[in-house]
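Schema walkthrough. Field components (list of strings):
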Amino acid sequence: MEKRVTFDNKVLPYVLLLPQIAVTVVFFFWPAIQALYQSLLLPDPFGLSSRFVWFDNFKHLLSDPYYLQSFQTTAVFTIAVTAISMSFSLLLAVMADQVIKGSSTYKMLLIWPYAVAPAIAGVLWLFMFQPSFGVLAYYMKASGYNWNPVLDGGQAMTLVVIAAAWKQVSYNFLFFLAGLQAIPKSLIEAAAIDGAGKWRRFWTIVFPLLSPTTFFLLVVNLTYAFFDTFGIIHTMTSGGPGRSTTVLVYKVYADGFVGQDLGSSAAQSVILMIVVAVLTVIQFRFIERRVHY
Amino acid sequence: MAAISIRDVRKTYGNTEVIHGVSIDIADGEFIVIVGPSGCGKSTLLRMVAGLERITSGTVEIGGRVVNDLEPRERDIAMVFQNYALYPHMSVFDNMAYGLKIMGKSKAEIRERVDKAAAMLQLEPYLERKPRALSGGQRQRVAMGRALVRDPAAFLFDEPLSNLDAKLRVQMRLEIKQMQQSVGTTSLYVTHDQVEAMTLADRLVVMHDGVAEQVATPMEVYSEPATTFVAGFIGSPAMNILPAKVGQSGGEFQLAAGPAIRPRDIALSDAGRDVLVGVRPEHLAVADAGDADVELQVLAIETLGADTLAHGRLAGATNGGEFIARLPGGASLKVGDVLPLAIEPGRVHLFDAASNQRIAAAAG
Amino acid sequence: MVEKRGIGTIISHVVLIAGIAVMCFPIYLAFVAASVSHREIIRPPMPLVPGPHLVDNFVTAITEGTNVGAATMMFNSLVMAMGIAIGKIAISIISAYAIVYFRFPFRMLAFWAIFMTLMLPVEVRIVPTYEVVASLKMLNSYTGLILPLIASATATFLFRQFFMTIPDELVEAARVDGAGPLRFFKDILLPLSVTNIAALFVILFIYGWNQYLWPLLITTRPEMNTIVMGLNQMIPTADDYGNWPITMASALMAILPPIAVVVFMQRLFVKGLVETEK
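Field assembly_structure (string):
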């Protein structure tokens, strides 16, 4: 889509674009190129000089069991967060779509957690599940369950998944509700006249019509769980115990800043860039289609 | 106020020429209407005069000054747009004052000019309102007021009435005409509506496929259309146009559809020439069988009250030959009738079949 | 409406209330924790109703905190959030204006360059971006906190989308009225964009306020910490060290401004959220 009417000016458009392009080049492209370049270098142990090693960092990385484990951890984390958050939000949205009385109050009370930073969501949930005194941890232990996410990797993963999913419910709820409200009531009434019960109506009429929203949220949630949950992991578990919650994004940070393994960190950055690029392309191609739906 | 002269103006997009050399001379104070179907290039032509489109070749002069390379604001014109193009966040007053503010006029002068235009257009009670709080007709007036306050050399109108309902359109048509007559500003008006064109214009420009087919007064365009396109476009229902060959006698036209037509007052010397014979439906009357020029087999009847339209085909036509006659309201006819029709003298139009141009025929 | 009666509606209400309880409980508990003493918390079970120390704990959190008082960190967060929101809107609206209303060489290149930033979130280029900022001597500065984050493809696309819906005739009318490109921008385009700017501001303010990784990397001095990242350093690492009520009071302060924005500007917030995802 293009404007038919434009202004003639040789200099002005460049001046207008300059700030955005300058920031983009200095803080996006230059670092990205640096990451590409560094991913091909191997610094000596003292960081004084480095050698050009082609794809050794990548080869090394892809044969590193810790890195492969991190991939797996990320997959488990991402899928769990997306599934839990989306199904819980869909349930709430379907219910909110049914009520008339108090619906705006419900909506209000369900959307504010969007404003909570992931890192703070981490602190809040950590506090409740803190093994020695956290309220929920206390009652779990009182009922005989051995709860200790500081030592148990599976429990630590459960904890970060819950916090991350909790934070994303508001967003999903808002979009699901909007999607549900956009479905023409006449379709549902037609199905009711055709004799479909409530449950059947939902799965045969409502859910298929909601699929553009669902797919859109799927992509958004995957992206969120992949990239925006660094704060949650960092505050709650710092990737532990025993790397059980070290997702890829956390590993880039840990290897680059804590471990000072620049070559490997850069190679990981490059791999992540490819992942984002793929996700972005999927998102945009899908949105193109959504317009025509 | 100023004369406008458009000389051999052409417009090309990429390799496609959409305006093929149009020339129009507009006298000072004249009201010119450019009319044509959508896509004929009439809006493009107007926008080239306004300075909103580049002129590929040819010249446009306003007040004796070539304006090809001037910005719209330097051309001393004002324009009324199809969707009014009022600034939605500004009050009526600010909408009308905006151009004057940019010109750097004093507050007092702006006030005076806007008030004067508002009084003329009966907009005084609405000056502080936003456009969205106005009706369609009021918005249209504001758009005109915005043009009026500038006191420009020329007004340009781009289908200004097409967003209004039919009744309002008739009323605004009159108001535009009155406004233009009272200020006497040269005006160029684009429309696809032939009634609007006929009623407003001092002179009409009928455009088709990027060519100005005829530039003439409304009456000339109606009574002596220069081409078959003009003949078919102006007038409703459209003129009956039938392909024919000039007969041996010169006064007889053998229709491709079958029967022959023998108008009483017209003749062409070159027998065998391919021509198009045109007759307006309103120039036909029921006649005695002996005086008939054509015979119409009625296939459908539309009763309009004042008139009755008889649709059908010429009696004896083998292929084509569709024909319409506009008869008085009380005419008693029914489907299946064969009507003998006489053509009003002097009302047969002849066009060359190859060029579609009007042929000046000798009286027969 | 189909089957809007009796039992179904009651179930809906019950599910919604349960859902809200799950969503709100963590905040409620933080509120309780901020109103009792550290001793009460670390000796389970901790109380589930608010205690008497709310004001004391807040005062301590604001003035002292752990490393630095919450007042300082809140101020830093405010500067960062405002800087990011205003900066992103400012540079995005002018770049969208350039891309939509002008034709010039490299226009599509500029468009794609801006688009590419979507594919390079800070998380994937942490170390080299840090190095650039460090070499520009921007560590521990507001410039360093704000500037690298203000490029925005999303905001640019949103404005582009919006500009495309503005009728061409408006530009033409402005040109006939004698307005040049800058005047058109200031007098027509900017006033028409107010709602979009406001909606975007709400979203970007929350985005800026909630930044975590970036301030964590580039602010090493406590007085430059933002509240969201500073909170991490306030988490007691052992029962006898630190003070949970102070931490939770700070956490409440950290979420208060963005929540206030969502609650009081709900309509703009929803609009902003929906539009930026288009």
